[in-house]
Write a structure and sequence with these properties.
Largest sheet: 5 strands, mixed
CATH class: Alpha Beta
Structural class: alpha+beta
Low-confidence stretches: none
Number of strands: 5
Number of domains: 1
Strand content: 35-45%
Strand order of the largest sheet: 4-1-3-2-5
Distance between the termini: 31 Å
Mean pLDDT: 95
């Protein structure tokens, strides 16, 4: 069964606060596949793939992030890709 893929761009105080590693843990807990990386502009980007309910939960989580983060906004757009697991990727 095909599953949706979304591209998230997270803005705010989201680098250097454990955001990526916390998202990896949450995504794996929810059964989400994809990955997350820091962007050179100070944002965080994630590609998330999974069933609709799990995607709703990871997007809601992304809007808060870990306690040490201050999320200003999250842009959600259609994404693409096929993923085996959820990983932290190198900065791009």
């Amino acid at each position: 069964m095909p599953q949706s893929v979304f591209r998230l761009r997270i803005f705010g105080e989201v680098q250097g606060v454990g955001y990526r590693w916390s998202m990896v843990q949450e995504a794996r807990r929810l059964g989400i596949r994809g990955g997350v990386r820091n962007r050179r502009d100070g944002s965080v980007e994630a590609l998330v793939a999974g069933p609709p309910r799990a995607l709703e939960q990871i997007i809601a989580w992304a809007r808060k992030g870990p306690p040490s983060a201050t999320v200003a906004s999250v842009d959600v757009a259609a994404g693409e890709g096929t993923f085996e697991s959820f990983e932290a990727w190198a900065t791009e």
